[in-house]
Amino acid sequence: MSTDSAALTPGTRPQVPAGIDPRGPQVAAAITSVVLAVTLLLGDSTAALVLLGLQAAVFAVGAAAGPQHAPYGWVFRTLVRPRLQPPTELEDPAPPRFAQAVGLGFVVVALAAYLLGATLVGQVAVGFALVAALLNAVFAFCLGCEVYLLAKRATA
């Protein structure tokens, strides 16, 4: 009996790190890009505030539960992934989760700015979030993920 199997009691499973399909956050970023672009086009209207509020909710779920549990993750799992080949590798969900929290921060700043009448500040915050989302959607470069990894390295 090996030491690995001795550590397991009947009915338990070995701990395998959970991973996510890296294409999921990229699809979510594409949807986010559309939402944020439409928000900018709508200006400081009520419709823009509603869209920002909905995007904030999506980011909040992604930051709290992980991007795979957010509404856009459901869209990817249900509508997109079944039409794709299985991923060649899985990704740690922690960096995209952090990126969702950063996105939430920018959207909350934008919402507050719009509500306080600081339209330009709101547009700049939405613009920063849009650029980050577009980088992920178009180039598969997750800016928030990179910040997460740099912070991990700095604190290691």
From TrEMBL:
The chain crosses the membrane at residues 24-42, 98-117, 124-151. Residues 20-153 form the DUF4395 domain. Keywords: Membrane, Transmembrane, Transmembrane helix. Pfam families: DUF4395. Residues 1-21 are annotated as: Disordered. It comes from the Bacteria. This is DUF4395 domain-containing protein. It comes from Nocardioides zeae.
